[in-house]
Amino acid sequence: MPHLHTEPGQRDITVSALIVRLVDDEWRCLVHLHRRFGTLMQVGGHIDLDETPWAALAHELTEESGYTLDDLQVLQPFPHVGPAPSGNDLPLPAYINSHRVDDTPHYHVDLAYALVAEAEPTRPPGPGESTDLRWYTPDELDADSLVIATTAYHYRDVIERIIPQWHRVDASGYPLTLEPE
Description:
By secondary structure, this protein is α+β, with helices and mostly antiparallel strands. It is built from 3 helices and 9 strands, in the order ββββαββββααβ. The protein has one domain: Nucleoside Triphosphate Pyrophosphohydrolase. β2 and β3 (40-41) form a beta hairpin.
């Protein structure tokens, strides 16, 4: 989806997925080579006007990594006790950050979710998406000049602080659409 807000200083809301996987007793972090920017970053994209952040994450995951919510657990600061009576509760992002896009006066506000995978994705990224997916350790993220610094920082924090303290919850258990109350 293209940018909704194109005037200087305006912000679009995006979602991203910080996906980690334990490989041979070592945490690995999924990054992909962004086709437009030529940088390594977590998968994600814009929230369309007619979708929730969680629905946007679901379609961005499939398009950019081949994962679906069924393949993942989302890390949450509190144990999951079931949906609210309305069924409209969504998971909490691990981070919310605002950053400038490229060298333009345009900004994104990103809701970044921390997720755990048990295996490689079973599907390829969608048509037209980058197929350059890499599983890096935090040290490899720090060492590669193509990795966005915030991406490396957040992944290290997910591994060192969030995984030991937060709870794994089935990512497919949250609604993609919201019902009126």
